[in-house]
Fold this sequence. Notes:
By secondary structure, the chain is an all-alpha fold. The protein has 2 helices and no strands.
Amino acid sequence: xxxxxxxxxxxxxxxxxxxxxxxxxxxxxxxxxxxxxxxxxxxxxxx
Length: 47
């Protein structure tokens, strides 16, 4: 596992925090799902 720093709009962080106990886990799952989706539809990385 590698630690990274990202910037997100405050509203998104607030909404995640309202719904989830573990922000890092939520973002990990979201990133994994998006990567799987992009593999399936072959979306270019520069969207």
